[in-house]
User: Fold this.
Amino acid sequence: MAHKIASSAYGLTEEQLSIRDAIDQLCKPFDDEYWRKGDRERSYPTEMVDALYEEGWMSMLIPSEYGGGGASISDAAVVLEQLERNGCHAGAVRAGMYTMGSILRHGSEEQKNRFLPQIADGTLRLQSFGVTEPDAGSDTTRIRTFAVREGDKYIVNGSKIFTSRVQHSDMILLLTRTTNREDAAKPSAGMTTFLVDLNEAQEKGWIVANPIRTMVNHETNELTITNLEVPVENRIGEEGEGFKVILSGMNAERILATSEYIGQGMHLLGRAAQYANEREVFGRPIGMNQGIQFPIAQAYAELEAASLMRWRAADMYAAGDNPRFEVNGAKLLASQALWNAANAAFDTFGGYAVAEEYGIERHFREAKLPSIAPVSNNVVLAGIAHGTLGLPKSF
Ligand SMILES: Cc1cc2nc3c(=O)[nH]c(=O)nc-3n(C[C@H](O)[C@H](O)[C@H](O)COP(=O)(O)OP(=O)(O)OC[C@H]3O[C@@H](n4cnc5c(N)ncnc54)[C@H](O)[C@@H]3O)c2cc1C
Assistant:
C-alpha cells in the first residue's frame, strides 16, 4: 500500500474519524492488483460494492425510519473520499447512495414505504439514472424520450446515452418529457420522472442496453426504450415537475463527487511523494528537484482549498439551504485540482507512469472524466457567470 498523505481532520467529528478507519479496513482486500485486473477486464467491482452494502454504507443516507443509517451528507462524503484515498474507485457506488433522495424528497409516503426499506437492506438496488440523451447533451430541456399516459400506466419511448450501472441495478430513475418543449410553459417544464423496474423492462424488451466501451472502467450504456410500460404509481413527483425532481438531487451528487475527486487526488499525491522520495537519479532523490516538488505541492494546496469549499457546501446543504454556487464551485475546483494532481504524479513517475503495473496511467485516465461528467466544467462556469455573477446569459 502506498504512502498516504496525512488527511486533514478539519471540521470532522470523532465519529467521522472512525468512519475513515472503518473504510480503511474495508478497502484492505481491494488493492492495486484488484483494480488493475478490473480495469483490464472492464469488470464491475462487485466485491467492493457488496462489502459496502453489507456494512450499511450504501444506505447511510436513508433516514433510520426507513431502515437506513440516517447519516449526514458529510458522513457520506467522508466515506467516498476515504475509498478514493485508498486507491478504490468510488464512482461505482456514488449513485447507489444518493439516487434514492428523489424518492425521499418527492415521493409519496406510500412510495417511500414501498421502496426505501428495500433499498436500505440492499435487496433493491437503485444505482442507475437516465437523464442524458444523444441529441440533448448538456441541455437537458431538449430530451426527447416521451411518456404518454394511458389509463393507469405511461407508455415511454425514446433513448438515453451514458446510462451507467444498468447491469447492476434493479431500478432506474428515468427522466422523460410529457409535454413537448415548445408547448411547455418554460423549457424546464413538461418533464416527468419515473422509477422503472429495470429487470422487468429488460426481460420484456422494453429497454435494451448496449454497453459503451470507454477509456475508464465505468460501465455505461446506450439505452433504447420501446413501448416501456410504467405504472402511474411509479411516477415520482407530479407530472410536468420531473426536472425539479432530478435537479434536487444534484447538490448531493456534486458534494459526493467532489469528495471522490479530493480523495483520488490525495491518493495520487501520496503515490507521487513516496516515489519522489525513493527514486534516485543523478545521485539524489528526484523529489529534491523543485521541478518535481512544486507541482505536487501546488496540487496539494488546490485539493485542500477545494475540500474547504466542499465542507462549506455540505454544511449549507445540511442546514437546508440551496448552495448552488458552493456545490458547483467545489466540483469545478476539485476536478481541476485532481487533474493537476494526476499530471504531477504522471510527471513524477516518468516512464513508469505509462506502465500499467504502476497504476498511475489508470488513475490518469480516470482523473480526466470529472471535467466532463456528471456535469461539464463549462456548464458549471456558465452557471456561476449567469446565476451568481449576473452576467448575460450565453444560452
Ligand atoms: C463515463 C460516463 C458516465 C456517465 N453516466 C451517466 C449516467 O449514469 N446518467 C446520465 O444521465 N448521464 C451520464 N453521463 C453523461 C454526462 O452527464 C454527460 O456526458 C455530460 O453531462 C456532458 O454531456 P455531453 O457528453 O452530451 O456533452 P455536450 O453537452 O455535447 O458538450 C460537449 C462539450 O461542449 C461544451 N459545451 C456545450 N454547451 C456549451 C455552452 N453553452 N458553453 C460552453 N461550453 C459548452 C461542454 O462543456 C463539453 O465540453 C455519463 C457520462 C460519462 C462520460
User: Anything to note?
Assistant: The first strand starts at residue 126 and ends at 130. The chain has three domains: 14-120, 128-242, 247-388. The pocket of flavin-adenine dinucleotide is lined by residues 129-132, 137-138, 162-164, 214, 218, 220, 369, 372-376, 378-379, 382, 394-395 (CB under 6 Å).
